[in-house]
Design goal:
eight-stranded parallel barrel, 12 strands, globular, alpha/beta, 11 helices, 243 residues
């Protein structure tokens, strides 16, 4: 069964969703992040993806208290990203309850530091964030685009031990138009041994099933569930039927 990973993105301590990573196109959802996380856990979800969007723009961890609260109120395995740029940032994230952290911009801009994190914490705790815009890696809350191509970028880090990558097609993120199945198929073909976590564009359980059929082992989704395109009951049914 494909691993189901709902996302909680945080601005100002609140759960939000952006469209194509655009901070000016923000939708805020009223429920407390910890309450949302608990609902996910109650339907059988085991893992949660949390993104500190304030941190991504500020270049340091900001919403760590939200992480701490979610970790205290659930037993979910949390991977946390957004603004993790220093050794203190990553220490705080782990101390506040993250089981894994995701590094994206840091992996592009400060390769040696990111490699030191892999060496210190192990590849089971460090996930490579690969956010893609027009085929190249985007950084700094998706507000800048590098000249690094997706496959080459990931392959370079696989040589240094990375085994898990969250790959997001920014053009699909928050659009509810379906994920980039072709991109993930290419990754699985060209990067054997990589645990691909698909992100961006999921609009329904049918999209999740397409990714599963393509051999993608894990999928992150957010807006679809907050907008009612995927229901908690559908998640629960899918989890039960695939156990």
């Amino acid at each position: 069964m494909i691993e189901l990973v709902p996302a909680i993105d945080i601005i100002g301590g609140k759960c939000v969703r952006l469209t194509q990573g655009d901070y000016s196109r923000k939708t805020e959802y009223g429920a407390e992040p910890a309450d949302i996380a608990r609902q996910f856990e109650e339907c059988g979800i085991k893992r949660l993806h949390m993104v500190d969007l304030d941190g991504a723009r500020s270049n340091h961890i900001v919403n760590y208290r939200v992480l701490e609260k979610v970790a205290a109120k659930t037993s979910l395995t949390i991977d946390f990203g957004g603004g993790l740029k220093s050794d203190d940032d990553i220490r705080i994230a782990f101390e506040c309850g993250a089981a894994m952290v995701t590094g994206g911009s840091i992996a592009v801009k400060e390769r040696d530091k990111f490699l030191s994190w892999i060496g210190r914490y192990g590849s089971d705790k460090i996930i490579l964030g690969a956010d893609v815009k027009n085929g190249n890696i985007a950084v700094s809350g998706w507000e800048e685009t590098s000249d690094m191509e997706l496959i080459d970028f990931i392959a370079g880090y696989m040589e240094s031990g990375i085994r898990k990558t969250i790959a997001t097609d920014i053009s699909r993120d928050g659009m509810l138009e379906g994920p980039s199945v072709g991109m993930y198929k290419e990754m699985l073909q060209k990067l054997p041994g990589l645990y691909v976590i698909a992100s961006g564009g999921v609009s329904s359980m049918a999209d999740i099933e397409k990714l599963a059929e393509a051999g993608v082992p894990s999928v992150i989704f957010g807006k679809a569930i907050y907008e009612g395109r995927i229901t908690v009951k559908e998640l629960e049914k899918y989890i039960v039927s695939n156990q």
